Amino acid sequence: MTERYDVVVIGGGPGGYVAAIRCAQLGRRTACVDSRATLGGTCLNIGCIPSKALLQSSEKFAEARSALGEHGVALDGVRLDLGRMMARKDQVVATLTRGVEFLFRKNRIDWVKGNARIVAPGRIIVTTPDSEPREIEAAAILIATGSESTPLPGLAIDERSILSSTGALALDQVPKHLAVVGGGYIGLELGSVWRRLGAEVTVIELLDHILPAMDRELAGALQRALARQGIAFRLGARLAGIEERNGALRLAVEGGQQPVVADAVLVAAGRRAFTRGLGLDELGLARDGQGRIVVDDRFATNLPGIFAVGDVIRGPMLAHKAAEEGVAVAERLAGQKPQVNYDAIPAVVYTAPEVASVGNSEAELTTAGVPYRIGKFPFTANPRARCNGETEGFVKILADAATDRVLGVHIIGPDAGTLIAEAALAIEFGASAEDIARTCHAHPTLNEAVKEAALAVAGRAIHI
Fold first, then answer.
1. Which of 410, 441, 443, 463 is catalytic?
2. Residues 67 and 206 in one domain
3. What pTM did the predictor assign?
4. Which end of the chain is more exposed for a tag (fewer CB within 10 A), N or C?
């Protein structure tokens, strides 16, 4: 018997499960199709969450080994228990994925386990290896299947010595030398984890700078900080090939550069939309030159009743962006008129120091011909950062030269990923730099650096 729903969401990641919950809250009979053993998608299972757990654990290890002495905390014989660190990471993941499953039960969402194929608008066939196909009908179908690592020609990922991010999150020993192909978020974060745990790390990046989507000043500052931590960089370098010699991997680099010899290689050269098996070509669903699903401003595809959000459509591949889009689709299906403000979506790199941005960069404003003013404030002058012993970095605010409206905020420093929320709220509400400057910030807090940067836009910072 064919099962019928108001909404069927394909994909149980942040875009999909959030959309499903919001649809159920709005009274829609909802199902979510996902083939994983646990909900949460790439983010919770093999992405955002396990990587942040390892970043936190590795940072604590590095702090215990070399940074607590100045606080008067003397430790002898600090050693790494990698197995226990990995077990903690797995427990964090398990707790959160079980939490999503609980939310599905709470909101009466049916979790249909299997692989979905859309055979026509409103009709889905779900298959599993050990059961008969199930046919499902839905008034609306939402595709939220996320993304996968982009492979490089000639590099076969085996998750033993040549790794995707999945393999790099599950190593059972610290590599002697880890080569990271790609200087984006994933490569820098996982490179930081294994560097702190004792690996030699070399980042190979095709461009002449890291973090191509970030403000160039922040990218340069982060590269210098990571270099001081011992991470080596080969910029403007194209990987020409890998060969195994005497148990080691030899990475040839074009342009006459010396080869990199490593015992593990992390391929982190970006991600691509994952739509395999959905039957999109047979349906005639429109996609762009990068394989992403084409949608309009309502997230509707060219086929009736089929929508898409998250990494499978245009825009930054960020879990919180997907979640916002999922909520917007759910509310539009209920007759509401939500909007997603893409200028107010923050991006964070969880290295140490953290890097966070929201809004426009200087390069974007210059290209658009928008006059702007800059306000900067260093964490060296922030009392709380000084107390914490984390003074590297700064806050930079870009404001419209005519109206003082905040156009972009870029932070490198302690807890930048948390501090950026204030900036995102400012942009969402169309605040001026003076609005931030005249908002009372508690003392002593890291947030005072944001206030001082806002003051600096008008040349009236107090503490520099």
1. 443
2. no
3. 0.95
4. N
